[in-house]
């Protein structure tokens, strides 16, 4: 099915100036850009975005990091987009990610791993409206 997925270029990717390379990769893979914006989350907003991880030991660190600088939020559309974007990003831990994946190329460690992508249709249905209104989604 044609799906939409929420991708974040995380603060580390913005600081490394690799946002364009991340966007280019999704364009090269044939996805359609539906929405894009740069913003800076508060720690509380990061906590709401990652609310499913609230009980994890790394939650506080994750929210600190995700609010440590600007991010770039985007929505990409394509056939089977959720799983395909996750494959392009690679494993959560860049050290375990396959060669050529975005996290291997641009990530530093399991926390500072350059990109986020929705992990399911259910997640995408929470994450896309978290950042974008209907008017901002141009298919
Ligand atoms: P992401 O895809 O954004 O979804 C949740 C994030 O939590 C994940 O990527 C990692 O960056 C982060 N995360 C997962 N495990 C750890 C960990 N052990 N320590 C710090 N951050 C983690």
From TrEMBL:
Q: Which GO terms describe its molecular function?
A: ATP binding; metal ion binding; nucleoside diphosphate kinase activity
Q: Which UniProt keywords apply?
A: ATP-binding, Cytoplasm, Kinase, Magnesium, Metal-binding, Nucleotide metabolism, Nucleotide-binding, Phosphoprotein, Transferase
Domain Nucleoside diphosphate kinase-like intervals: 2-139
PROSITE patterns, alphabetized: NDPK, NDPK_LIKE
> What cofactor does its activity depend on?
Mg(2+)
Which residues are responsible for catalysis?
Answer: 116 (pros-phosphohistidine intermediate)
Q: What is its EC number?
A: 2.7.4.6
Give the top-level enzyme category: transferase
Location within or outside the cell = Cytoplasm
**Chief subcellular site?**
cytoplasm
Give the UniProt entry's GO cellular component terms. Answer: cytoplasm
Q: Give the matching Pfam families.
A: NDK (PF00334)
Q: Which residues bind ATP?
A: 10, 58, 86, 92, 103, 113
Catalyzed reactions per annotation: a 2'-deoxyribonucleoside 5'-diphosphate + ATP = a 2'-deoxyribonucleoside 5'-triphosphate + ADP; a ribonucleoside 5'-diphosphate + ATP = a ribonucleoside 5'-triphosphate + ADP
Q: Which InterPro entries match?
A: NDK-like_dom, NDK-like_dom_sf, Nucleoside_diP_kinase, Nucleoside_diP_kinase_AS
What biological-process terms (Gene Ontology) are attached? CTP biosynthetic process; GTP biosynthetic process; UTP biosynthetic process
Record-stated family: Belongs to the NDK family.
Q: What is the annotated role of this protein in its UniProt record? A: Major role in the synthesis of nucleoside triphosphates other than ATP. The ATP gamma phosphate is transferred to the NDP beta phosphate via a ping-pong mechanism, using a phosphorylated active-site intermediate.
PANTHER family in the record:
NUCLEOSIDE DIPHOSPHATE KINASE (PTHR11349)
Listed under subunit, the entry gives: Homotetramer.
Q: What is this protein called?
A: Nucleoside diphosphate kinase
